[in-house]
Amino acid sequence: MSRLLLVSNRLPVTVKADKDGVSVVPSAGGLATGLRGPHENSGGLWVGWPGDVSRLTPAQKASVEEQLAQQRCVPLYLSSSEVSRFYEGYSNQVLWPLCHYLLERVPRQDRDWEVYRKVNERFAELVVRHYQPGDTIWVHDYQLMLVPALLRERLPQARIGFFHHIPFPSSEIFRTLPRRLELLRGLLGADLIGFHTSSYVRHFASTLMQLLGLEKVGDHVAQDGRQVRVGAFPMGIDAKSFEELVRQPAVLEEVRGHREKAGEQRLMLGVDRLDYTKGIPRRLLAVQRLLEREPAWRGKLRFVQVAVPSRTTVEDYATYRERVNELVGRINSLYG
C-alpha cells in the first residue's frame, strides 16, 4: 500500500519538558491542523523539525524520539544557527515579507541563502532515506521551496507534490529576489504545485513565463520532459470539529464570561496571529478613530483582540508586538 510522506518545516507537535518528564503533544498551528487528517488516515510519515530539544538530556531526547515514532513523525534536528539563518533569516526575513508585498522589510543582502539551501538539502536527504517505492511525497510551504527539485534529482520516478500556503506575488515583485531562478526551478521538481487561489496561480504562471520562458498550457507546464500540473486548491477548515468545539462546557463558560463583562456593550472580536501581515494596528486605530468621531459609542463598545504570539525571536515581530501593546495601552487610557 502506498504511503503519504508529508514534509514541512515543523512537525505537527510540540515537545514539552517539566519535572514529570517530557511529552509530545499536538500543535495548534494552521498547517498542523489542516494536514492532521491526511496524516492519520494515510499510515505514512511526517518529516519536520520538532523544535528546540537542545536542553533535553539524552534520556529525555530518547523519550521524545520514541513518542515521535509512535505518531509516525520523523525529526530533523536543526542547530541554533540553522534556525536563526534558515528559518528566522531567509524564510521569514526574505521570503515571508516579499510574498506579502512588503519589500521595505526585505534585507538588501540575502546572506542566509546558503544556509537555506543546505537545510533544504538535509530535508530532501532525510525524505529519501525513508522513501519506499510507490510513496507520494507532499512538500509544504515557502521554507522548503528547493526540496521538490532536490528530491527529483535523487528520486526521478517519485510522485512529488508541493503546496504554497502563503501568497505568491506578482512577477514584478518575485523577480526582485536575487535567487529567483533557483527557487522557481526548485518548485518545478514537483509533479503538482498547489496554491490557495487562482490569482496566485496566475502570478506563478506569469513569473515562469517572464523569468524562464515557460508557458502554462491549460493547467500544465512542460519541464525537463515532464508535465507539471499547477492549480488552485483552497484549504478549508474542519467544520465538524469547530461545531463540536462550540458546544463544549468550557467554551460555553468562556462565552458567558465575556458576555457578562460586556454587559450592554457591543462586543467585537478579532482573532489573529501576532504577525505584521494581519493588520492589527490598523484595526486598533480604526477603533480609536470611531471613538474619537462618535462619542456616543464610548462606553458602549468592547473590542477583544486575541493575538497569538508568533516568531518571538525575530526582531521585526518583537517590534510589532511592542507597537500593538502601545496602541492598546493608549486607547484604553483614553477611552477604557
From TrEMBL:
Superkingdom is Bacteria
Question: Can you list the GO cellular component terms from the UniProt entry?
Answer: cytosol
Kindly state a single biological-process term from the GO annotations of this entry. trehalose biosynthetic process
GO function term, MF aspect, one:
trehalose-phosphatase activity
User: Which InterPro entries does the record match to this protein?
Assistant: Glyco_trans_20
Q: Which family does it belong to?
A: Belongs to the glycosyltransferase 20 family.
Q: What name goes with this protein?
A: Alpha,alpha-trehalose-phosphate synthase
This chain's source organism reads Cystobacter fuscus (strain ATCC 25194 / DSM 2262 / NBRC 100088 / M29)
Taxonomic path: Bacteria, Pseudomonadati, Myxococcota, Myxococcia, Myxococcales
